[in-house]
Specification:
The chain has three domains: 208 residues, Histidine kinase-like ATPase, C-terminal domain (Heat Shock Protein 90, 2-Layer Sandwich); 192 residues, Ribosomal Protein S5, domain 2 (2-Layer Sandwich); 37 residues, no CATH class. The protein is built from 13 helices and 19 strands. The strands form four sheets. Strands 7-6-5-8-4-3-9-10 form an eight-stranded mixed β-sheet. A hairpin with a 2-residue loop joins strand 14 and strand 15. The chain is elongated and about 110 Å long.
């Protein structure tokens, strides 16, 4: 306690670094903390290409890269994405929270609070050096264990270094890694590394498609991350008549200053009996691309979701199951004001209570119903169904809108959003072939026993076992007539 010149007593209200570090890192996963650093790379590119012709290119991130090293003793991320201006570093880049929330308000970033880099550093270790070049200046900032333990020292040392041989970019090296991070970065002790590479491939697929290069080094060999791509089934007018063509449901519009692009359709053929049987028996099917993927300003924040979060199992939409394995959808939200995006503070989730998201979720459910209804109509395999699939081709989901004739769009005008949508006229079965499916589940051991009895092989597909049993009893029933 101290006393002022007027005799007023004061108590210390300085914050505790341990408190800040604990609160910042408590509710974020390690991989999400690292993805924050990749987000910063992309934000650096956006600042670099702002007001240039590169910003309007089909691949605005081309030529920019980030390299990550995951080692049990050191984490490093290096990029050529523009660097941190010295003035920015001195004023707020290293502060625990952004004092000016208006910064970057005219750029399509996802960062709002200025905590991503610091949170990632504290999540991983107790020692860090940030070296950066921007323009003609280069410098490094060091965070030491002693600084972290000193609640009276809130300034970090900035040391100018030679810019010779350095690209405009930043290198962050984090040492004195926490034990759980060391364990995660060990390729022989933890599945984290493979899971992380898959996450980068999925969550940065759109950015990589637009030119950004990401590599992850484990041991001696760096590995370039390939994007996960999604194609959507589309039938050209010259391949089939209108009533036999496949196309996605599309919406393009605006809500509260946020541009929205929504596409949902089929990315593969409808499932056969064996896939559905596998699901009934508890064996997972191949549904990697099924469900909804949500993108905010080029960053994937939700990947292939199949829950109520994206409209499954509510408001007339059935719950997801293997029958809908062929349905995929993407929603892309864009805004130069990150605060308007329906994204959580971790930037890896959707704010389900956002007015913008709730408005768009109505359209997501509309599109889902369109294709769940289609799968019901074509539940039974047939040559007609196969022909429809064979006539379609896989088109990049982000390019398919260009194939829709201008006169085929319908105007959408509501109080909460405006835009246009394309609702495809999907094929319906032309004839009733008098066929119905019989579907039920039985214990696997019993199916094997019956399979060996009627087919002489315990490992025949369950559908073949059922068909043979039915045919045998059908033959007996006909003989009695």
């Amino acid at each position: 306690m101290s006393e002022t010149t007027d005799g007023t007593n004061k108590v210390s209200a300085f914050p505790s670094k341990a408190f800040f570090v604990g609160m910042l890192t408590r509710d974020i996963e390690l991989k999400d903390a690292i993805l924050d650093l990749l987000d910063n790379c992309v934000d650096g590119i956006l600042r670099t290409i702002k007001n240039t012709a590169a910003a309007d290119r089909e691949k605005p991130y081309e030529g920019y890269w980030a390299e990550l090293v995951l080692d049990e003793d050191l984490f490093c991320i290096k990029d050529n994405c523009g660097g941190i201006p010295r003035k920015v570093a001195e004023d707020h880049a290293f502060r625990l929270g952004r004092p000016d929330l208006e910064r970057d308000k005219d750029l399509p970033t996802v960062g709002m609070y200025g905590i991503g880099m610091k949170r990632a550093i504290f999540k991983m270790g107790r020692s860090c050096t940030v070296t950066t070049r921007h323009g003609d200046e280069a410098y490094k900032v060091t965070i030491s264990p002693e600084w972290l333990e000193d609640d009276d020292d809130w300034e970090l040392p900035l040391e100018m270094v030679s810019a010779s041989g350095m690209e405009n970019g930043t290198t962050i090296e984090i040492g004195m890694l926490h034990d759980h991070v060391k364990h995660a970065f060990s390729p022989t002790k933890s599945p984290f590394v493979d899971d992380f590479k898959f996450t980068v491939s999925a969550h940065y697929s759109y950015i990589i498609h637009k030119g950004f290069s990401i590599s992850v080094k484990i041991g001696d060999e760096p590995q370039d991350i390939a994007p996960r791509s999604i194609g959507i089934q589309f039938t050209s007018p010259d391949k089939a008549p209108d009533n036999q063509r496949l196309a996605p449901f599309i919406y393009e519009g605006t809500h509260n200053g946020v541009d929205i692009n929504l596409i949902v359709g089929l990315y593969r053929e409808l499932p056969g009996d064996e896939e559905i049987e596998s699901d009934l028996e508890g064996r997972s099917g191949s549904s990697d691309n099924a469900g909804w993927t949500i993108i905010c300003n080029d960053r994937v924040v939700v990947y292939c979701d199949k829950t109520r979060l994206t409209g499954w199992g509510e408001a007339g939409v059935p719950k997801y199951h293997t029958q809908f394995i062929s349905i995929t959808g993407v929603v892309h939200f864009r805004s130069t004001d990150a605060a308007k995006l329906p994204v959580t503070t971790t930037k890896r989730g959707i704010d389900g209570n956002s007015d913008t998201y709730l408005a768009v979720k109505d359209i997501m459910r509309e599109g889902l119903k369109h294709f769940t209804s289609y799968t019901y109509k074509w539940k039974s395999p047939s040559t007609e169904r196969e022909e429809i699939t064979n006539n379609a081709e896989s088109v990049d989901i982000f390019q398919v809108s260009k194939l829709i004739p201008e006169g085929s769009w319908a105007e959408v005008k509501r109080q909460d959003y405006t835009g246009k949508k394309y609702v495809p006229k999907l094929p319906a079965p032309v004839t009733d072939n008098g066929m119905k499916q019989i579907r039920f589940s039985r214990p696997t051991r019993d199916i094997k026993l019956v399979s060996e009895h009627v087919l002489g092989d315990p490992d025949q597909p369950a559908s073949e076992v059922g068909a043979k049993c039915f045919d045998n009893y059908l033959k007996k029933a006909k003989a009695k007539k």
